[in-house]
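Aim 2 progress. For Peptidyl-prolyl cis-trans isomerase, the working sequence is reproduced below.
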Amino acid sequence: MKLVFFLCLFFLFLNCEDKQTKKKVIPKATVTEKKKTVKKDTVIEPEREFPKLNSKSAMAFFLEYDKHHKENKVRLTTDFGTIDILLYNETKFHRSNFIFLTKQKYFNDTQFYRVINNYIVQAGNSDDRKTARKRAHIGRYLLPPDTKRGFKHDRGAVSMPSSEINNPYKLASPFEFFIVQQKGGAHFLDGDYTIFGKVVRGMDVVDKIAAVETDDGDWPDKNIYIRNAEIIN
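Predicted structure tokens for this construct:
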């Protein structure tokens, strides 16, 4: 009788163990919280072809630029026709600056913003924000005058105006230029402004621009654009 009792107790114990084992192997869905990784948008600026210029670095930059960029002719395509300019090698910094800005397409879509008939037409600025952005990208700098090369402000002379800032040394504003349209020249400007080239073709276009109606600030009533500036042979 005891034997039967112990056998029953033994089988009962095995049955309980079996149930506990089955409970342990039942798979459970485990919820693993994955941390969301938020990727920040990184703006990678393209490598600059040239350093951002300032008045301290500009002279060294253009001195080196002059060694590798010997072009000296630029064609301006304007709303009134084309103007071809020969740049003087003697004024190397101003020539290099003009070639550099031409290759950077700075002059494209700038305007003849100051026009005085029988005197000058002045260009290289604009009331468009795009021009301001171009200047900011290139850098803020001035060029020293180079007025003792023997060039005169004859008709067709291409010269560089002084900056509008407090400027007792008449440092040149590198983004702008003027062409003497006055018959007989404007020689009272000699010695104050750097002549760095001359118009070799297209003075009839300059005359057309000079003849337009302007407001009290000498800005043409209808904007006159330089549509394209390019290096020519």
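The helical segments are 2-25, 58-68, 92-103, 129-138, 203-210. This observation will guide construct design in the next reporting period.
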